[in-house]
Amino acid sequence: MNQERTKSEELATIKEDLSGAKKYIDDLTNFLPVSFLVVNPLHIILEANPFFVNISGYEEMDVVGFDIEEFFLEKKELKLFKKKILSGRSDKNEIELTFTKKNGEQFPAFVSAFVRKDKKGKVFGYFLTITDITDSKKFNERIEEIVSQKTKELESKNREIAESRLALMNILEETDEAWKNAEEEKEKTISIIANFTDGLLVFDKNDCLNMGNPKAEKFLRTNINNLIGTHLKDLNGSSLVKSIVEVLLKNEAFKKDKKSVAKVKAAHREEVKTGDGQTLEVSAVPIIAGKTSIGTLVSLHDITREKMIEAMKSEFVSIAAHQLRTPLSGIKWTLKMLIDGDLGKISKDQKEILEKTYVSNERMISLVNDLLNVTRIEEGRYIHKPEMVNILDIVEPLVESYKAEAERKGIKLNLETTKKRNLNVAADIEKITLVAQNLLENALKYTPKGGKITFFVKHKVKANKIEVSVKDSGVGVPKDQQARLFTKFFRAANVMRMETEGSGLGLFICKNIIESHGGEIWFDSEENKGSTFYFTLPIVTEKEFEEFKKKL
Amino acid sequence: MSKKILIIDDDEILVDLLRNKLEESGFAVFIAHNGVEGLKAIKKENPDIILLDIVMPEMGGFEVMEELQKEGIQIPIIIVSNSGQPVEIDLAQKLGAKDWLIKTDFDPKEVLEKVIKQINK
User: What is the dihedral angle through the alpha carbons of A71, A76, A77, A83, rounded to the nearest 10 degrees?
Assistant: First the structure.
C-alpha cells in the first residue's frame, strides 16, 4: 500500500516534471529568435514556432499539414535535400534556398535540418530551421564586391607600377647608354686632344682660356693649368706667349661680334718664331654651335721642318738658276757682240746664222726663267712688288715694241683702248708686263700670215675693273683641250704639231700672276677661227692700294 | 780723264766681253775675279762705279757690300748676276746697290747703257 502510493506519487511527480519540462521547452521555442518547423518523415509540417510566423507572414495553421516543398523555390534541390535528411547519414543537413513569404516576397534562406531518430535509429521526423540571410548575403556580396574591386584596383595599380617600373628601367638603361656614349666620346676627344701632334688651345666665348693639350704646354713652356680662365689679352709669360697672343688678337676668330665670327670659315694662319729656331704656325677657328661662335680653337703647328725644306729648296733653285744661266748668259753676250760687229766684221750669211742661234738661246733662257717662276709660285714666294699704275702705260709700249715683228710676219696688230686715263690698278709692273707679253707672243706665234691681232683695254664700270683682252685670228684651242689650258706643262695638240718650242708654262704663270693680283683670267676659242684671252685687274684708289700692299 | 770702272766677276767670258764694250766707250776698266781681289782693287783704284757679281769663289758679292758698308766706302754698285730672286734683290738694295741686272735679261750694250745712266746721275 505504501508502495503503490509511492508509485502514484512518483508518477505524479514525473508528470509534473514532464509538463514543467514541456512548458520550459515551449517557452524557449517561443522566445528564441530562431524560426523552426517540426516536420514528419513525409515532410509534412506538424508545428511552426512564433518566430517562423514572424518572418514568413504565415499563421501556424497556414503551414501545418503542408509539404515543406510548398514554401521553397528550388524544388529539385529540395528533393535531394529531403532524401539526404531521410537517409539519416548525418544528424545535421544544411542548404541555401529561396523562401517564399505569404505576401509573395522571397528571401534567401539558410535552411538547416536536425534529424530526429528513435532508439532503433529510425528517422521519425526532423526540425527545420529557416534563417533569413538577406542581410548577411548582401553584406557578403558587398564585401565580395569591395574585395573584387579592391583586387581589380590593386591589379591595375600593380600593372601600372610594373609598367612604370619597366619604363623607368628602360629610361635608366637609355640614360646609362647615353652616358656611356658621351663618356666614350669625351674620352676619345680628350685622348685625341692630348695626343695631337699640334698644340691645341681652346678658348670659351668670352675669349678666356678653357683648356690646352700637353703639346701646347710643351711649345709654350708654361703650365697651362695656371692659365685656365685667363682672358686672351691677359695671358703672359714667355716672349713666345706674348707674340702668339699678339697674333691671335688680330685674328678674325677673336672679333667681338660672335655672330660675324661664326661666318669666318677659313682658319687665318700666321707664322711665329719661337726664338730657338722653331717656327710655329698659329691658326684660329671659331667653334660654331648653331649660328654663333661658342669659343675658339687655336692650333700651334710646328712647321720648322717645312721651313727648313723650303729654305733648302729655295737654295737649290737659286743654285740651279745660277748654274743654268751662267752658260746661257755667256752664249747670249757672245752672240750679241758678234752680231753687233763688236768683235770684228762678219758677213751677211754669218750674221743670219748667228741671229737664229741667238733666238734659240733666248728661248732656252725664257724656258729656264719659266721653270724658276713655277718653282717660286709653288713655294708661294712669287713675290709681287705692287705699284699704282695705269694699265695703258704697260700695254701701249708693249704693243708698240711688237709692231715690227707683227709686220714682218704679215699680221695686223692694233690696240683699242678706253679714253679714260685716270684708271689705276695695283700691279707689279714687271709681272703684268710678263702676262700681257705672254698673251701677245702666243697670239703672234699661233696666228698665220694675213691674220689680225687686236689688243683691247676696256673699263668695266659696274665691276670697277680693267679688262685687257687679246683677240687673234689664229689656230684656236681644240674644244676637248680647253679645260686644261692653264695647267702646268700643258700644250695643245694642234700647237705641238706646228711648232715644237714652248714650255707649256706661260699660261700657268699668267694665271698665277693675275689671280695673285685679285684678277681673273679666261679665254674664248674656236679651232681654226681664233682665240680671245681676257684678264681683269681691279681698279684701286690710293687707300685701297695701301690695304692691298699690306695683304701681300 | 776717263771714268774708272771695276768689274768683280769670276766668269771669264763675260768679263772679257764687258771689258771690250766698256773700253770701246772710253772707260778705264779694272778686273777682279772674286770678292777678296775686288776689295783690294777698290782700295787701290778707288773706281767711280763697280759692276759686282753675287756668286763667286772665296768671297761673294753680298760680303763685299757688307764689307764696304762696314768701312763706310760709298761707291755706286750695279749687281750683274745670274740669279735674281726678290729676296736677294731686296737684300742688295738694303746693302746699297743701285741696280740689279740679271745677265740673261741684258746684253753688254744694255749693261753699258745702265752704267752711263748711273754715272750721269
Answer: 100
